[in-house]
Amino acid sequence: MAKLPVICPSCESSLNVSQLTCPECSTRVNGNFPLPVYLQLSQDEQSFILQFFLTSGSLKEMASQIGISYPTVRNRLDDLIEKIKHLQQSHQCYEENTF
Amino acid sequence: MKKILFNPFERYSETQLLIFGVAAAILSTYLSYVFNARFDGALDMHLVKNITLKQAITDNVINIASPFSTFYIIGFFINKKTRPIDILNTVLVARSIYCIMPFTHFAADTLEEFAVKTAKINPLDPAPIAFTATEIITISIVALFGIITLIWTVTLLYNGFKTATNLKTIKHKVLFAIAIILAEVLSILFISALN
What we know:
The structure holds 2 protein chains of 2 kinds.
Chain A: E1 16-21, E2 28-34, H1 43-54, H2 59-66, H3 70-98
Antiparallel strand pairs in A: 1-2
Chain B: H1 2-6, H2 14-34, E1 37-41, E2 44-47, H3 53-78, H4 84-96, H5 108-119, H6 133-165, H7 170-194
Antiparallel strand pairs in B: 1-2
Helix pairs in contact in B: 2-3, 2-4, 3-4, 3-7, 4-6, 5-6
């Protein structure tokens, strides 16, 4: 399955959704919808969050499953939290400017 | 392989690193006692005529405690989530490289001969002093050995500290450098005061 592109290959900004299609009747909806925060993350980051969820938030268990040390997992999580906070702020600014 | 040699902190658990680090600390204490090598500073080693077991143990305990204290205080300042065990493992694993340094004992006689000759040089009248080929080769090998060991140790300290504190900015890197200098000064002061 092809990966959903979330970053513009030209200017590296976050991409928006401009068209949605119903797989049953092929009805198409056009517009300009920002991607949800989770989808703006890279594939690796999404997998990390999924694993965090599946291990009930246990960083120690995650570390042993991935085969890396505990502080490395914690650092990745901290970096991801920072990134999500930044994306949320950008998302809020976008909504304020749009509506 | 590169990761194992220079950044094992990203991969191995704290228990594995602690076991390795403690074993290396015991081995380096034993080797320093056997080969008359004094670790008289967090990043130093000097060959001496005689060393007692008490001195060898005291030197190593201080050389672990000093960088641990400075790194933990500065690490905690950088990131409140810094754990003491990660800092301790950083110091222990980085110091494990120093296990190989006491083996320079086998070049002790040549090094002493070289030091005696060098001390005779008068800076105002630098008369040519003949060094033998053995002396020059030995000094070069020991110097290279020392430089490689030092660079490897500091690289391990940096990578361990970086993993423990999630160090990122230039300011954090400067604080790391200050922590190393403080650790070196503290260890030298404590060792000279206690011995």
